[in-house]
Every structure is written in C-alpha cells, then in structure tokens.
Specification:
The complex is a heterodimer of chains A (225) and B (238).
Chain A: H1 4-32, H2 39-51, H3 54-65, H4 70-79, H5 87-111, H6 115-123, H7 128-156, H8 160-166, H9 176-185, H10 189-214
Chain B: E1 3-11, E2 14-22, E3 25-30, H1 37-45, E4 52-57, E5 60-64, E6 69-70, E7 78-81, H2 93-98, H3 107-120, H4 136-149, E8 154-158, H5 166-183, E9 186-191, H6 194-200, E10 203-208, E11 211-216, H7 218-221, H8 230-234
Helix pairs in contact in B: 3-4, 4-5
Classes of the chains: A mainly alpha (225), B alpha/beta (238).
C-alpha cells in the first residue's frame, strides 16, 4: 500500500488551510462589516468555487498562473521553476477549494458577534483593531475554527483543480483523490477501498469536530458553579 | 467640569436637536421610546456622528462638524453603561473590569484594582466567573464596576435599570447614585421611568420627538404620584 498520496494530500491541505485561513478570515471580517461597499458581490466571487464545475475553475486557474501568464512568469523568476505541475500547484488547488469555506464561515461568525460588545470595547478605550482582536475574534473563534476544519477537509479532497493545474505526477502532485482514481482505473480495488475509507473516516471526524466546536455558546445561561 | 452639547442628528424620518450643558451630578433624560435619548448618548460618546454641531468637555472639543474635529470613541473616556450591559461573555468579571484600565499599568496591578472595584459593588465573589452565570443584579453591578474602573470623564447610563425587578432596582439605584457622585463627573442617565429619574437625578431633561421640552429640577418636572414613586422613598439620596 502506497501511503505517499495520502501524506502528500495531508501536507498540501495543511499548508493550504493556513494560507487560505489568513486570507479567508480577513475577507470574512471585511464582509461582516455592513459598511463595506459591494460586499455581496465580493462574497459571490469568493464563494464561486463552491458552485463552479472543477474543470472550469481549474481552467481559469491554469490561465491565471500558467507559465505564459504574468503570475506564472513572476513565480518562475522568484522560485526558479514553474508553479503548474508542482507540489505548490496542489497547495494552490487545495487553497482555492478551502478559501470560500473559511471566508463564509468567518463572515457568519463575525456577524454573530453582538455589535454592542464592540461598541462597549470602544467606549472602554479600545481601538478598532484592539476591539477586533480582543472581542470579535475570540467570540467568532468557534465558527472560524469550524470553517478552517471544513476548508481543510475540502482541500484534502480536491480532485478537479488539482488535476488541471498539477497533473498526476507520482510523489509530486498525485494526491489521495487522484491516487484513488488511478487505483480504480488500474483495477486495484484493495488500494482504492483503503484510501477511500481513510478519506471518509477523516471527513466524518472533521465534521464531528466542527459540530463540537460550533456548538459552543458563551451567552447561554448556565448554573453558577 | 462640564459637558457642552449643541448637536443635531438627522436620520431617515428622525431629527434630534439638543443644546445644553451637563454639569457634575446626574442628569436624567426622560422620554418615551424613540424620542432620541439613546441617540443623544451615542453622539456624546462618539458612537453616533452628529449631522451638525459640537460636543466639548470643558475646553476639549470632542466633535465639531464646523472644524471637522472628531475625537475617536476610545479617546473620550466616556463610561457607557449599555441597556444590555454588554459584558464580554468570554471574559470573567476581573477581565471585564480590567479591560478599560490603562494598558500601561502592570497586569497584576490591573487585576488587583479590578478586584477592588468588584468588591466595592459587592460582587467580589464573581471575580473568576463569566457573565452567563450572573443574575440580573450581579451583571448590573459588574457592568457598573467596569464603567467606573476606567476613571471616566463622563458617565452615560442607558436605561440602566430597565431589566431589573423592583427589589433589585432599589439598592442598585442607591449604589449607582453614590458611586457616580463620588466619581464627580457629569453623568447622563436616560430612562422612561419617572420613578427612576426622581430617585437618581439632580436634574431632569424631558425629551420628545428629538426635542427638549422641559429642563429643571426633579421636584419641578416629575409628577408627585407615580407607580414607581416608592423607589424614591426606598432609595437613599446622597
């Protein structure tokens, strides 16, 4: 049994979750502000990967970061190799899948924070930044962590975009979903079954943990200790 | 120390226009829901931007639409006791009270001061408990401790007793009056209860549809008989 595709998927999904987390939480915080102009349009653009066919999305990304694109040339100048058909492409594909999950969860979590608490923080001497980091972020944390977990799971399972921009190169871009496809094509039923079960158990575990995290409610009255 | 307010706030279908001076002591702003009481507090604290006008504490201008001055909310040092209290649910009582203290103080000193403030309002036992475990009166006391711990220049109280039963109101009104007067700064409390106003205020402003319709001593402006008047009898006036 070759575990490399699974390890590669885990590594790519972890890095992608960190990258998409930084961007997605910032986008979610911005989208939660009622004063942000065009926030519903931005939300739709960020969420588009959720509803677009993976091949279409992969095509756009390939055009955007391919070796002939400005971004692709810049990447080659900086890192000395192409972004496409590399491990970085697998990370990028996973991050694109994770970003909407994280941004949407963060937006919902920030919107759930009572604005009076932020106003109270300001009257108590907190700048907007301090109020964000000491009040909004801790209170939104359960929802954000849930979004990060979902984003990780989404990144772990990406197939279409990974194939389009990363290809299926053993030990370089062959992720677990691609390996399962190869096992089925190669009539290796045992390997296909084991990999599928591992991914399924991982996904269900993550969903369970998401439920545990997002079920916390600090405002819910509780009997005094 | 006095707070000069000369502002107009215009919103869709609503206009608040107030020109007055708040001296030391407690001024109750009395009026029905939607009359602009909370908007007035918002404009003073900086949470609401006046359409026109000026707010100044002594010689320090907090906002002036003519000159474009607008001191940020966090630099006005306005203690604001919200109607919902707005205690931070993720912090215990010590954390809530210490939140508004000067950040240059060492953490241990802030915690010790916070504990002193909690003890003063009679809820020292809540120090390490979070707001979801407080009763209504306890939450009110923690919020009061938090407001006073920041050494405010102005104290704003938005319907501070509206969520409390009469039994809890009486001692709290006395406590609020005592501590606010000790702070020796202008304090503005908005309420729709004449009983609360009579028990709390040194001065009463009646407001209706965004306009001041009366301004004077509680004895002159408040009706003698009212269902809340027993609050007055039960509350010790400082």
């Amino acid at each position: 049994m070759d575990w490399n595709p699974l390890l590669l998927s885990l590594e790519a999904a972890l890095i992608a979750t960190v990258l998409a987390g930084v961007v997605g939480i910032a986008i979610g915080a911005a989208l939660a502000s009622p004063r942000m102009p065009g926030r519903n349009l931005l939300d739709a653009i960020v969420a588009a990967p959720l509803v677009m066919p993976p091949t279409v999305l992969g095509y756009y990304v390939l055009v955007a970061v391919g070796r002939k694109s400005p971004a692709g040339r810049l990447w080659r100048d900086v890192f000395g190799s192409d972004l496409t058909f590399s491990f970085s492409a697998v990370v990028l594909a996973a991050a694109i899948g994770a970003l909407p999950m994280i941004a949407k969860a963060a937006r919902t979590a920030f919107q759930g924070v009572d604005p009076t608490l932020l106003a109270a923080a300001r009257t108590l001497g907190a700048s907007k930044r301090r109020a964000l980091f000491t009040v909004a972020l801790p209170l939104a944390a359960p929802g954000i962590v849930g979004g990060l977990m979902l984003g990780f799971a989404r990144g772990l399972g990406d197939f279409g975009v990974t194939l389009m921009i990363g290809g299926d190169i053993p030990d370089v871009t062959r992720s677990a979903p691609l390996a399962i496809y190869d096992h089925v094509q190669g009539d290796r039923a045992y390997q296909a079954a084991v990999s599928s079960i591992v991914l399924t158990v991982g996904a269900v575990t993550i969903l369970y943990l998401v439920n545990r995290f997002t079920d916390r409610d600090l405002d819910r009255p509780r009997a005094p200790r | 120390m006095s707070l000069d307010v000369d502002i107009t706030v215009e919103r869709a279908g609503f206009r608040l226009a107030v020109t007055t001076r708040f001296a030391r002591g407690i001024t109750c702003v009395l009026g029905p829901s939607g009359s602009g009481k909370s908007t007035l507090l918002g404009a003073i604290s900086g949470l609401v931007a006046p359409t026109r006008g000026r707010v100044a504490l002594d010689d320090v201008v907090w906002s002036d639409t003519a000159t474009g001055v607008r001191v940020p909310v966090e630099r006005r040092h306005c203690a604001y006791l919200f109607q919902s209290l707005a205690l931070f649910p993720h912090l215990d009582a010590l954390g809530n009270v210490a939140y508004g203290m000067a950040s240059e103080l060492p953490r241990a000193e802030r915690v010790a001061l916070a504990r002193t403030h909690l003890d003063r309002v009679g809820v020292g036992h809540l120090a390490h408990r979070r707001p979801r475990t407080y009763s209504g009166g306890e939450a009110q006391r923690v919020a009061l401790a938090r407001a006073l711990a920041m050494h405010p220049r102005v104290i704003l109280l938005d319907e501070p007793f509206s969520a409390l039963d009469r039994e809890l109101k009486v001692p709290l009104i006395a406590l609020v009056r005592l501590l606010v007067l000790e702070a020796d700064v202008p304090a503005i409390a908005v309420t729709h209860s004449t009983g609360e106003a009579r028990a709390l205020a040194d001065r009463v402003i009646r407001i209706a549809s965004g306009t001041v319709i009366a301004d004077g001593a509680p004895a002159d402006l408040l009706p003698r008989a009212g269902h809340d008047d027993e609050l007055v009898a039960l509350t010790t006036r400082g």
